[in-house]
Structures are given as C-alpha cells and as structure tokens.
Design goal:
With 564 residues, the protein is mainly β. The strands form 7 sheets. A 6-stranded mixed beta sheet has the order 10-9-12-17-14-15, with no helix packed on it. A 6-stranded mixed beta sheet has the order 21-20-25-30-27-28. It has a 5-stranded mixed beta sheet with strand order 11-19-18-13-16. It is globular, with a radius of gyration of 23 Å. The relative contact order is 0.13. It binds copper (II) ion. The site of copper (II) ion (CU) has 5 residues, from loops.
Amino acid sequence: MAVYKNTIVTSMLIVMFLLPGIVQGETRHYKFNIQLKNVTRICHTKPIVTVNGEFPGPTIQAREGDRLVIKVTNHVKYNVSIHWHGIRQLRTGWADGPAYITQCPIQTGQSYTYNFTIIGQRGTLWWHAHILWLRATLYGAIVILPQPNVPYPFKPKPHKEITLVLGEWWNADVEAVINQALQTGGAPNISDAHTINGKPGQLFKCPIKDTFTLPVEQGKNYLLRIVNAALNDELFFEVAKHQLKVVEVDAVYTKPFDTKAIVIAPGQTTNVLLHANKRSGSYFVAARPFMDAPVTVNNKTATAILHYVGGTSASDISSFNPLMPRLPLLNDTAFATSFSSRLRSLNSVQFPAKVPQTVDRNLFFTVGLALESCSTCNNGSRASASINNISFVMPSISLLQAHIFNISGVFTADFPDRPPTPFNYTGTPPKNLITSKGTRLSHLPFNSTVQLILQDTSVLTVENHPIHLHGFNFFIVGRGFGNYNPNTDPAGFNLLDPPERNTVGVPTGGWTAIRFRADNPGVWFMHCHLEVHTTWGLKMAFLVENGAGPDQSVLPPPSDFPKC
Ligand SMILES: [Cu+2]
C-alpha cells in the first residue's frame, strides 16, 4: 500500500514538474458591500460610494493560479459593476465587469458573484467600478504574488512591499460634475486634489491626518506597487533623493532600469524597487500630472512621506520636515517619451515575450476629440470623442449576452479597419468632418494575430490618450510623433522584447503600434482610460469568435448573472 501511494505521489510530482503552469491554486473569497460612507478630505466632507466603507477599497491578495470569488452586493442608489483591470478573464468574460459590455450592472439591493481564475499573471493590477464616474472612489489594488516558492526574477528581494494607489478627489459630487458637463457641452470641472492611498498630503490644508506615511529602515529594499486610479490625469511619480528601479508594469516583468521618476497613465500599474539608502530623515513621495496638450488639468501635487525609523527619527508626522522632489514639469514630453522608450519586457526563458511575428489583421484606428452639435448646450455644440470617427453608443443590454445568445439589433460587427475618410491626422483638420455614432464591433477570428495602429488626431486638440484593452495584454512594438507612416515606421518596430501592457499612452499628436493574439473568445472593450473621453464616446469593442477546440469557447454565464 505504501509503495502504491508513493507511486501516485511520484507520478503527481512528475506531472507537476512537467506542467508547472497547472499547479492548483487556492480559492479566495471576498465580500464587497457597495455602500455610502461620509469621508472628509481637504476639509470637505461628503458621502462617497465605497466598498465596505473603505477608501480606497480593500486590496485583493492572491497568487498566480488562484481562483477569486468576490460577492458584490449593491446597497447604493446607483447601478454598479466592478472591473478587474488587467485580469485576462480567459473564457470568463462574464466576470470582466464593464457595464453593458460584458454584463448588465448590479441593481440596487442585488448581488453578483464574480468568479474567475488568475492564469499566467503575477504582479500588481487593480479593480474599479466600470459604470458612470463611480470609479472616482470605488477602486483598490490587486496584488498577485508568484506561485509558492517561485522567487521574483529581480534582485534584491524586497524587505517589504508597499502599495500606493494614486487617485483624484473632487469636493463636489462626482456624478454631478460629469452630468453638468454633459448638459452645458463643456469639459467637466477639474478635480480639487490628487491623492496617494486616498490622502492628498501636506501641501493641502488640513494636512496632518490626510497624509500617507511609509516608514522605512536604513539599508533595506522596498517594492512599491504603484497604481494610477485617477480619472483623468496621467501622473509623474517621484521620491525625493531616491532612485527608483522599474521591475514590472501592468503585471508583466520588465528588464530592470533606474529612473528618478516614473510616468503612469490612468489604468497603468508600475512596480519599482526603492533602496532606503539614507541615514535618516523624511522625504516627500509626490505625484503630479503630465499634460503636454493645451488642456486644463488639476496641477496640484499629492504627497506622502517616506521616513526613516529607528535611531533618532520622530514618529509624529507633524514634526517631519521632508525634502521635496523636483518632479518633471507638467508638459515634459521629453521625459515621458524617454521613460516609455526604456520599457522592455524581461523576455527570459521563464517569462518569454510572445510577440506575434506575423500579422493576420492590420488595423488602423484614429483616436481623438471633436465637437458635435447640441441644441441645449451653451455654444450649440459639445465635445465628442471617437475611434475611426465613430462615437460609441452604449447598448441597453450587454454586448456579450447579445453575442452569445444571438440577440439581434444590439450591435453590428462592422467596425471599420481604418478611418472612413483619411485626412492629415495631426495637421490642420478638415472642417466638415462629421462624427458618426454607432454600436459597432470589430470582428476577430479566434487566435488571429492583430496589429493595431492607434493614431491621435488634432480635430479638436491633440492629446495623450491612455488606451486600455480588456481581455488581453498587448505588445507595444512602436510609437512616434506625427502621422504613422506604413512604409517607413515598421522598420523600427521592436518585435523582440517590447513592453507588454494592458494600457498604453498614445503620444500627443502621435501614434502607437500594438500587437496581440486574439486567443480569448468573447466581447472585449477598448477605450480611453481618461474617464471624460470614455464618456464622450472614445470606446469600441472587439468580438473574438470561439475557437474549435474544447477549451476555446466562452463558458456559460453564472446563474446569478445580473438582469438589465
Ligand atoms: Cu483619451
């Protein structure tokens, strides 16, 4: 009997050794109660929508291979849905979360249990509401550790890990801010503060309890998991007098490199190592926008305090006198460009960069802002935003349901592969360009390889658009300023170790080339992660067919799937 048991154990070990990817993970249960909570920031108190009364919301802790079962119950007046940003959701599109794309939202008093497995991903991601502007306060980090006994590929091993979620705070009710903008046709009021872990920091009034602190010990190394959860602002992030070593972006390891600051767009995550190499003292950790277009942003600096503990250091933050980092200037395009160009996938034997070397589908999408007529608006027009000149109209039931259950009349699968009317995208725009509206999807056969050029336009103004794709990571194989040139630009593409992400900033007045393999069946949203642009219509979706294999089709929806 003992011999028999040993044989089984041995064969199991052999199987596990041969197939390290299928080590069984744990199932982790979370309960998210969506509820109002009165919160005070910069001397303003207002009720905000939270998970479990926490702001920012709870951090989800998991390991690669784990299953997450998260029961979300809605106790507020708004319909709610939650997106697990960056999680690939292989075959589980029902759990992705964008309202009216993969699910109907969870109505007041109702619950929905998101159930999905983290496959082939480890690092920092995050979750946020994916309806209205509720993600202003409904957000939190997802920390995915490697499987047990699998070390990080970078050195040194961090002594501690600290999650820093960057956000934006409005003193006014955020839904009122965007509703007012839509009525008048103008841009929404900018936020009143930026925040680090929900706290604006000492440069604002009422600072003391509004400051997040990071105690560190001399000589130790720390892993900072940085998330940009701001609604509308790309951010620079810097720690006074400390270099940062970038080791991961969007839950994909990178070739490590040192930098004095990082640039991070809404939707992106960045892990950096920080060596606490000072003797003592305290240092500001600071975040401030990057904006290199003629667009008004909140340019206020959020701060936290990194302080050395032990020795003579004080413990009361009111007695700190921290040093301030210089931070890149608001419009420092050169710094942002240089930072982006230094990002490379690790591309090791263990973590290869599987860049599609051939392309089945060549797509060219313009992304940009324009105006549309509006009889009730102040100037007779309002801002609109579009992809290939189509401003996306949200359906009234989810696209994934319409696709899987063959419900007609919800969308058409005829999103154009290129702009209907070509023009000088970054030059003087044509005057008579009419933006059309539609719920149109781009159709992709299962497992096809896609190259997508994202081209900014100057129709209303050029601007950096952080484009987020659900359901996939993509490789950023090229970027540049001006108009993409299909004859000369591909020669410069990096098809060896390009960065792999789920969100990419398309340069202001420029373009980005991405590649991905459509190996995840379902309906997958792609949109600008500046919430104001998404609201104005800068969004579309891909429809990826089921494959022929047994594991290549969308699983059935869960029994508690919300109804519209
Ligand atoms: Cu945008």
